[in-house]
Amino acid sequence: MEVYILDTNFFITPYRNWYAPDILPAFWDRLAEVVNSVNNIYTIDKVRDELKIGQDWLWDWFRQNFPQGKILSSSFYWRSYPKVVKWVRDQTQDGRFTTAAKDEFLNKGADPFIVACALSFKDSGAMPVVTTQERNDPNCRSKVLIPVVCNDFGISTTNILQFIRTFNIKIT
Q: Do residues 149 and 101 make contact, with C-beta atoms less than 8 angstroms apart?
């Protein structure tokens, strides 16, 4: 079964750029319906923590609409995290990423934990799909991109638009 793991930018990008709640509140209503009715959509505690920093409309929406049981804690993915760290360090030693890119990926934000969560699902037999707006650019050395890491671990990624299509989120 496919399991969708939502990155922080899954929430922030549409909020800031495409579906402002004062213009398209129906998008956020429909997204809340999908998140609450479909069993295979999750995010992680680190994403929640990043959204909380904003203390804005998006944070309020998230708290009110994203079920606690779908926010996975580090106890779920902690065993996979060292594999992600090792992979990034090995790739940096081999020259694939700059030291600054490695440090940013491992020390700032939810990204390595998103990958670790997906890896934990994969190790348990599920088919994880990380939903992120990051591009899959294997030649990028200045930033460790989630889709690049996921690809090397055999984990699928998708973007917001494909997620919207997959779950038939339509605004009528």
A: no
The CATH number of residue 8's host domain is 3.40.50.1010
Query: What amino acid occupies position 10?
Result: F
Exposed, middle or buried: residue 143 (CB in 10 Å: 0-12, 13-18, 19+)?
A: middle
- What is the total count of domains within the chain? 1
Per-residue pLDDT of the chain (172 residues; tens, 9 = 90+): 899 999 999 999 999 998 999 999 999 999 999 999 999 999 999 999 999 998 999 999 999 999 999 999 988 999 999 999 999 999 988 888 999 999 999 998 999 999 999 999 999 999 999 999 999 998 899 999 999 999 999 999 999 999 999 999 888 7
**Cα–Cα distance measured from residue 24 to residue 26, given in angstroms and rounded to the nearest whole number:** 5
Per-residue b/e over 23-38, b at no fewer than 16 CB within 10 Å?
Answer: eeeebbebbbeebeee
Does residue 36 sit within a domain? Answer: yes
3-class secondary structure, 159: coil
* C-alpha closest to that of 115 among 13, 10, 44: 44
68 three-state secondary structure: helix
pTM: 0.93
Q: 41 pairs with which residues across the strands?
A: 4
